[in-house]
Amino acid sequence: MGAELDSRQLNLYTGDLQTSSYQRAVTQMNLDIGRQISNFGEVRLGWLRGYVANDLRIGVAAPGIAAEEDIGTLRLDATVDQLDEPYFPTDGFYAKLSAHASRIGLGASFDYDRISLETGGVMSFGRSSVMGQLAMGSGAGDDIPVWDEFALGGFLSLSGYNFEQLRGDQSFAARLIYYNRVPGMPEVIAEDLFVGASAEAGNVWAYTVDPQFSDLRFGGSLFIALNTFLGPIHLATGVAEGGRVTYYITFGRTF
Question: 0.85 cut: is pTM over it?
Fold first, then answer.
């Protein structure tokens, strides 16, 4: 049993033009039962109850966004994690499956399903590592509320696009990340210094659209990363088709 309060910006775009910005606050409680499967992973079944507050701060109100929406969801989460390191792994693989069923009968404002799968693996050659990742999401034919849609855009998520610029009821993303550990970093500064690059492809679609691989968008990045006692720090430049260029400073886990 637990509780969560999450507040963040929800920016909406038409093409590259930001049309509105909301302050989205999610307040919810959860009741879960689960099982740890040795050191292999875990399975968790739970119930979520709460609400979402959408406060328009900039621009015009977007259709389909209410000032407040209720959450009443059953969820199934399963995780396999065999990576040898949490931030800059050199070996192993992982997979995450998440299935959520929002139902009016459980107190939600809308009936919809949301299913996502992410998997990846990494191998190393000396100080160099290469990680491949795939992520897919689907509303199973349902129209997902804007605040809970799948989103792409930002560092390593179609780098070059703005953070969560692309939103939809279906999503696909693939990325290949290379990073090389640079020796000689003083431990007083960080445990390790890395330089790296990524190549990324993906897109999002409405629930009424049949996804096509010809619709994929492309991006990539160059980055420097520090693995500090507070977690990883990335300095990066992202590029995408159409001449898009974006600069990032990120703190915390990104892959």
Answer: yes
